[in-house]
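Quick start: read one record
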Amino acid sequence: MDLAAGRGGLAAGVIVAGVVVVAVLIGAFFLGSRVRRRESPPPTPEEQPRLPEGGPVREVREHREPDEVPRSDTRLTPHELPNHGNSPTRTGSGADRPRWDEGSSGSFGSGGPGGG
């Protein structure tokens, strides 16, 4: 008889735990809906961003070069550098950056004919 009574208590505990989980989920849903009601509504079509007068902004592709680090006999810490270590960049020389060469395989092998 003790074995049957133990199973009944275990089943009741599982049912109570399930009811608690469902109650927490329902409470979270209502809390989320209250928070959403307090938020501002989505923007109307008139409030949406518009393109600039000159059309879409284009990407600027240029080569940037860092400013030189000052030479010193001792090691410099960031607060001793100009702009506190935030080194600015400047527009580099007009030379284009090296790009993918036809017939080259990049970093995978020699770029020669494969298969061997």
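Helices lie at 2-38.
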